[in-house]
Amino acid sequence: HRRGVAAVELALITPLLAPIMLGITDLVQFMRAQVRVETTAVQVGQTVSQCDAISSPGDTGQFWALAQGTLGSVATVRGAQTTSGGGATGAVVVTAVRNLNGANRVAWQVRTGAATHASAIGSSGGAAALPGTYVVPPGQLLIVTEVFAPTQPWVLSRALMAIDALPQVLSATSMYLSRLPDATAVTQGPSNNNAT
Q: How far, in whole angstroms, is CA 59 from its chain's centroid?
């Protein structure tokens, strides 16, 4: 009389367990994507902060290749965004900030990827919006790297995390002072050159 009881119990509980397992899988993918975005910001920021001169597209092309390699399938940051949905979905923005008469100013900015992701730091020549009251030391250059990647979390993942709305775009920012003894060589922005 006990034959088939386990099969019936499994059949009854499977509709409850399957969505939970799928939600957990989606949640893990979401967290892994956030880690990749943060790692990309750190790696690109460290690389740019070590440059004694930057050329575009020579060096910037290598920055974007590094970013794409680190992001993997999380987002595409190379290529122009098209109206048909192809091309870039994410973006990488590298901004150089310097102290000009006691105020933070954007010295230059380069970017790749979708134009829909705006920098929170500012635009070339304008005032730089840095966190807190941080002022770049005179004679120094602060390299700020922002990485953006769109995400579409599953509705059950939101319920598992007890969050009404997960971010539609994952983002990360890294900030490094230039590692050069004299940062004036890179305050002028990337030169127009294919050489690296």
A: 19
